[in-house]
Amino acid sequence: MNVFLWILAASLGAVFVGTGVLKLARTRDQLAAMGQPWVEDFGQGTIRAIGVLELLGAVGLVVPPLVGVAPVLAPVAASGLVLLMAGATATHARRAEWGNAAGTLVLLVMAAVVAWGRFGPYPF
């Protein structure tokens, strides 16, 4: 189970590094042109803040347990990503963007499994 949780955390980390960097590097109009119409509901500052939260979550999932310093930050980061993805799922569902809602729901479940496993029976 430990290996499974590491794989989940690394996968989530990779996804959130990618999406976080994208939100920081692209403008709102560029994101909308890339098929992310949800950005119409948010300002550029909010989109950048979401990108920063995604990057922090990705780093928190992997780096602390990898270096052995404050590994409790991994399930804390996973819990933060659960909350972030709950908001993303709600936003996509409200806008009837069902494909995006399904994707964020999958990420939510993955992060919840990491949080459960690392807070619960499989801590570092």
Describe, in short, the structure shown.
With 124 residues, the chain is an all-alpha fold.
Number of strands: 0
Number of helices: 5
- Beta content comes to under 5%
Largest β-sheet summary: none
Helical percentage = over 70%
What is the straight-line distance between the termini? 12 Å
> Mean pLDDT across all residues, rounded?
97
Write down the overall geometry: globular
Unreliable spans: none
How much is the radius of gyration in Å? Answer: 15 Å
What brief labels describe this structure?
124 residues; mainly alpha; 79% helix
Mind sketching the topology for me?
Layout: H1 2-25, H2 28-33, H3 44-67, H4 73-94, H5 98-119
What this model shows, in words?
The structure is a single chain. By secondary structure, the chain is mainly α. It has 5 helices and no strands. The chain has helices spanning 2-25, 28-33, 44-67, 73-94, 98-119. The model has no long low-confidence stretch (mean pLDDT 97).
